[in-house]
Amino acid sequence: MALMGPVAGHAQQLGLPEAPILTISSDRLFSESAFGQRVIREIEAEGAALAAENERIVAELSREEKELTQKRAEMDPDAFRELADAFDRKVQSHRDGQRAKLEALGARGEEARGTFLQLARPILVALLHDSGAGVILERSSVFLSSDATDITDIAIARIDAAIGDGRDLEKPKGK
């Protein structure tokens, strides 16, 4: 127990809880950090641009479909079928392309979250060491705990101080 006193006193001096088990909300850690907020803003902006592009494509395809329908009465059925089949392929191609873009956007979010956790790990290890605790548990997985053991706010502050919004720390994307 003599060892616990100095460690606990050290934790208290650093504003950390004096507990053998700490909790953290990884969702809040990401979403409230400068890094996470930047990524969320970027993904929301890209998502809005994708939605606008999709609306433009839908309007264009609707116009083409209307023109194709108007031509139907004056066309040979086989010639019309060829145009209709080509139009269907074009629609499917656009759907596939937009779906792929949406999936890539989701993957980018997951990749950014993984990068964030990788960058945050040494900071969380230092928090664990500084507090003298033996473990940090995910808050949502804990049935009952005191709010005093939650270090999410402290972790966010330390991560923000160490990596900021992380813009300069992520791997450059091949564009």
From TrEMBL:
Organism encoding this protein? Ruegeria marisrubri
Recorded hits in SMART domains, A to Z, give:
OmpH (SM00935)
Kindly provide the name given to this protein in its UniProt entry.
Answer: Outer membrane chaperone Skp
**SUPFAM superfamilies in UniProt:** OmpH-like (SSF111384)
Q: Which Pfam families match?
A: OmpH
**What are the protein's GO molecular function terms?**
unfolded protein binding
Q: What high-level taxonomic lineage is stated for the organism?
A: Bacteria, Pseudomonadati, Pseudomonadota, Alphaproteobacteria, Rhodobacterales
